[in-house]
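Before we proceed, please read the two lines closing this message. Let me know whether the structure tokens fit the sequence:

…
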Amino acid sequence: MTLATGAEAPDFALPNQHGQTVRLSEFRGEKPVVLVFFPFAFSGTCQGELCELRDNIAAFQDAGVELLGISVDSKFALRAWAEREGFEFSLLADFWPHGEVARAYGAFLDGPGMATRATFVIDVDGVVRAAFATAPGEARSLAAYREALAAL
């Protein structure tokens, strides 16, 4: 079960695709954050989802929101994917301990050992204001993101 709306978002520190450590707590009091958990870089549905976010990044920027993608891939795979696709937002490697952050958010699938497609919209105080997820193989809609951003 994913983390509920109204819960305090668990803090974490993960490397991004450039090897820089990103801590959720660094954004507290500064700006809201949207966490986008996804299964794997270079996979079909994930590719479509993150490219749609890339193509609509202005919606996040206009709302003053930090967009962070998170998967169990290594920072090296995430960097190659980000460079190939032109992602200008951080992709975080929840590689080791394997899926630890996804587990903290209730977004880890033990069987296949990957993050599920779950999104958490976190306000400046570190509280989850919206959360939504889809079944494996099912993309999240851009409308769900827009609705969540409007609620901030």
The longest helix spans residues 44-55.
